[in-house]
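does this look right to u?? NAP version
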Amino acid sequence: MKQPKGAKAYPELTAAAAHWRYTPPADALTGRNLVVTGAGDGIGAVAAKTFASFGANVILVGRTREKLEAVFDWIEANTDTQAVIVPCDLEHLGEDALTALHDAVSDTYGQLHGLLHNASRLGPRVPLAHYATDEWMRVMQTNVNAPFLLTKTLFDLLDKPSHSCIINTASGVGRQARAYWGAYAVSKFATEGFSALLADETEHAGRIKVYSVNPGGTRTRMRNAAYPNEDPATVPAAEAHMDLYLYLMQGPTGDITLPPTGSQLEARNWQGP
Ligand SMILES: NC(=O)c1ccc[n+]([C@@H]2O[C@H](COP(=O)([O-])OP(=O)(O)OC[C@H]3O[C@@H](n4cnc5c(N)ncnc54)[C@H](OP(=O)(O)O)[C@@H]3O)[C@@H](O)[C@H]2O)c1
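got this back:
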């Protein structure tokens, strides 16, 4: 595989790429502008660095400025792409913040080729009868309402290029209910509904493809919070899934045929194109 510029400084990605089911060209995302939410940590930080390594300009949306700055600094040092940081708490997305985000993206990039809704709140795992109402609201705000607000706000920029992609991050507990996963599970069922509805609405025009991707168990802080007794070494690193994310985000170029819009995908079981 021809190494993308950032790959030398990213040994975990290079190691994972040896087992990828799809090998993108080094410039697969060159010239593409992609928003990643939750870009400071976990799967979002890995996706942001990976996308930039393959040439994308990444808009890093997240809650903790220092974490976003660390990802931004890595991208600056290791790629030729133009990243930007947008610190924002998705629990408190007001009109002013949304307008500022839209205008910043529009002024800097003019159009968007991708939006990865990745940030999520896990919340407690307790029976519904004992679920704290304020926690329910916080999880639904972060996992359901924020992706709706961001999609609505950025829609005109995503609708400009001939091909763009929205990835909604799913979960196994949002496809098959599991007791005690509370608002997180319900929010992920809503994610599937949002994804299917948006795919149906945009299919005719054919410019925006919409997917729901379940990363499956992945070695992150959230996974550790959900399964504190698990040995993290037994769970794949996020870099292992990045072939699927790159494949979807690069658009239908060359001989690339993408899955039908609205597809539900499983990163861990994906067999490649
Ligand atoms: N890891 C797994 O095994 C697994 C399995 C299935 C699905 N998923 C899904 O994959 C996605 C990524 O999960 P992960 O494991 O990478 O989680 P993670 O390590 O906890 O990272 C989540 C990211 O979301 C950000 N975030 C949370 N609440 C936010 C808010 N209110 N405003 C802005 N940013 C916020 C966090 O910011 P801070 O760092 O500032 O807190 C963090 O950067 C989630 O949608 C999750 O549901 C994960």
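The mean pLDDT is 95. idk if thats expected tbh
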